[in-house]
Design a protein that fits this description.
Blueprint lengths: L10 H7 L4 E6 L2 E13 L28 E6 L2 E7 L8 E11 L1 H7 L12 H7 L17 E4 L9 E4 L9 H4 L3 E4 L29
The chain binds a DNA duplex (13 and 13 nucleotides) through strand 3, strand 4 and helix 3.
Length: 214
DNA sequence: TTGACGATGCCCT
DNA sequence: GGGCATCGTCAAA
């Protein structure tokens, strides 16, 4: 991953810019990849929904304080959730990857998801990690590309429209519950909790046939 | 096809 | 022992 990607970008800008980039992972001889279609920005100490709200710093969220380009993975109810760190060292801001569109190795992804098919393979933050067999905390604090987990920001699909909405699973946090800090590729079927009638299975919300970029 | 809810593992107090 | 940046199942339309 080219670290210039983060240059002069705040966390919200990074969250939008990540849409359409390619998330890749190599594990046990299997290669996995998918276009990022949904992200959420978490704005550090001031954000009531952030793991680092009011500067909270523990062994679990330590990677949030790493410099931009670092990986932050944590577990919830036995699932793994993947974040991109976006700001300078000791500024605990990041972006949660909430959905990807499978590009490479869909067959193995379905198997990893215990037979779940279609959009259910990768339309959620826990689901996409399970699909790619990403189930380790050992990459925490490492940089994308330094380990078999990477984000390709050059070979990318271009969203026709990017929409913003409130974040999912953030209840009772006042203004931070309402803020539009979730970003997604309009009409892409792999966006979590998108109403079926909004999905476009033909263009999937990309500007052009993104397969030609690959 | 959508919304409600219970299961579930682990970190933190 | 509480709480959680979730998921899959079930029931009703």
């Amino acid at each position: 991953m080219d670290m210039d990607f983060f240059k002069a970008k705040d966390t919200i800008t990074v969250a939008k810019a990540l849409l359409g980039t390619l998330l890749t992972y190599d594990h046990l001889g299997q290669q996995y990849a998918g276009y990022i279609v949904e992200t959420e920005a978490y704005l550090g100490q001031i954000d009531a929904a952030s793991h680092a709200f009011r500067g909270k710093r523990t062994v679990r969220n330590e990677a949030l304080f790493a410099p931009s380009g670092a990986i932050y993975i944590y577990q919830m109810r036995g699932l793994y959730l993947l974040n991109v760190i976006t700001a300078a060292k000791d500024t605990p801001e990041g972006v949660l990857i909430r959905g990807i569109e499978p590009v490479i190795n869909l067959t193995q992804m379905i198997e990893n998801r215990h037979g779940q098919k279609g959009i259910n393979v990768t339309n959620g933050p826990g689901k996409l990690c399970q699909a790619m067999a990403l189930h380790t905390l050992s990459y925490n604090g490492k940089r994308f590309g330094e380990v078999p987990l990477d984000i390709e920001v050059d070979h990318r699909a271009v969203p026709k429209t990017v929409l913003a909405a409130s974040r999912i699973g953030v209840p009772n946090k006042g203004e931070w519950t309402e803020k539009a800090l979730r970003f997604y590729v309009a009409h892409n079927p792999y966006v979590s909790k998108l109403p079926k009638k909004m999905m476009d299975f033909k263009t999937r919300g990309w500007q052009t046939d993104e397969s030609t970029n690959f």
